[in-house]
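Obj.: predict assembly geometry.
Materials: sequence records (below).
Method: joint structure prediction, all chains together.
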Amino acid sequence: MEVTDVVCPLCGCVCDDVVVEVEDNKVTKVKGACAVGKSKLMGHGRITSPAIRENGVLKDCSYDEAIKRAAEILAAARRPLMYGWSSTVCEASKVGIELAEEIGAVIDNTASVCHGPSVLAIQDVGLPSCTLGEVKNRADLVIYWGANPAAAHGNHMKRYSYISKGYFLPEGKKEKKLAVVDVRETKSAKLADVFIRIEPGKDYLVLSALRALLLGYDDVVPEEVGGVSKKDLLELVQMMKETKFGIIFFGMGVTHSRGRHNNIVNAIQVTRAAHKHTKFNIMPMRGHYNVNGFNQVCTWETGFPFSVDLSEGYAWYNPGETSSTDLLMRGECDAALFIATDPGAHFPGESIRHLSKIPVIQIDPYANPTTEFADVVIPAAISGIEAEGTVYRMDNIPLRLRKMIETEYMTDEAIMKGILKETRLLTLSRRL
Amino acid sequence: MQTIRLKLKEEVTGRNARIPVDASLLTPDKLFGKRESEIKAVNVWWGNRKENTGELFDVSVEGEAGSAEEVKIVMDGDLSRVKHIGEGMKAGEIEANGDVDMHCGAMMAGGRITVKRNADCWAGREMRGGELVIEGDAGDNLCAMYRGEMTGMTGGKVVVGGNAGECVGQYMAGGEIQIKRNADILAGLNMKGGKITIEGNAVMPGADMTGGEITVKGKVQDMIPSFKFVETTTVEGEEYKKYLGDLAMTEKKAKGMLYVR
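Observations (raw structure tokens):
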């Protein structure tokens, strides 16, 4: 059976034009997805059964037993952390936030080690942005800054930006210009009309210089800024002034280098300065397919997008203090729940050492390094293949993931509802 | 004078998880007039539950006070997981004998806090008055603001004996900060008023400033490229280059002054 218009559950591009063939309840062929998206849709090794660690060894158990044990751990905790949420659907996040409020947890998603700095910057100065559809149809200048879509967002250029053909740009890339700013010549940089190579950690300076040049204060800007000559900066500024519709896409190269969220504030201010001359936009290259969706749900539920501390009965939001790696590095948490994520592979060593000392609950379709130290392991259905639900693309467009395959695995939403119900029984008896 | 001694019990931070205690209710003005037994009964947050102060701290009270000004709180023990020390205090004195956790002296309006060692991030956040002395190093966001706030410190004086972290005095609008050693990147970011003196080195100071004054007595690494050189001037017998900025905020708004050697 051929399934068309499949929505890919991999990266923030959320391509919704993938074609999948399903035979005997298995995906047998994938067309239109990039290599990484295809690999995910084709499927690979799964956690086979719920399990609880006893004397250092994971022992298979029923879903009910694993959910009850998870609830006991969370209800007893004084400083629990609930982290992940970016590779699952909004419906699961919604229940997760309800649980976090019930137990006074810190709830956080992978944005806190990804585009969290962008979210902070957006709160400071706003975000002059647009949809990817507008980029495809209108943008004649595309700038990738500290981002390498050719490697990380396989279909981004083809579907939405430089290589795509748009309504007002029917000739595609012949009518467009591509500029790449990075510390090394990436695969994406090789395609660019202009490549600006900056010294690592100097993004902030280069962005300030661009603002001054766009505002017409050429005389104050020195001959070289952050390893870039003033001549090259003026050339980029000229390209920006001449465009009809420009867009800056930025990635981890700016959010996690020296200056972090302040780099993004500065990049957004560059966009504003460009408005003196033309229409300009800016957009973060969000990583996981629903990292944005958690931020949406968390904002409408708590008022803040991630790293929300509900321990004192109200939402306190302070990345740097309430963000997962900071909490774990400081050894603050006494229990942790991880859903649809793998801190075992991605977090700093010091925080993993702390996780080895406290009870850890893992909810995931796949075994990963986190499974090695998890005390309760609960396998889940794969969202977008075995479960449906809502996700948000990098440009804030909500899309509905489809279910193509029947499964015995519980969905993330059902698991979270189960844990919430069991936890409430325990917290209620504590209050009585 | 009255001295209230609060010593954090070892078992509070000596476990697997080092869960912070919220000390915002333990200020001279909030404890003034309370007997020892009443202080022990003050409910403070420890993680997601409230505990009596007497469960977490050894408490003792000496002497009498006629007003909050006459109350001195001396804090001992491992204070590296005690947050919000002296937050919002209006009068009296706090002496913290050790490293203190985040938000020490945040929103403080009066009185004096002395931290004998280092202070973690957000010390003096949105401070309005009084004096905060950190004898060791200060973490990031000293005298800056809560996420999303557009105004940081507005009054009072802060002295740091050692180094300070990133974004000293972000969105500062008044008051005075003195750093005896070096400041990390972006000191005085978005500064609108007040005065920052850095006796050591600074990196990218004054970005996006629209008012106030920053003086760097040591070296400046990575000068922001959108500042306008005004003149060479002499301050306290030393020669400084005076810059106006930040022009990236437009010339009309760029009323900040940056003095560098």
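Conclusions so far: Chain A has two domains: 46-113+289-431, 116-284.
To do: check interface contacts against the pulldown list.
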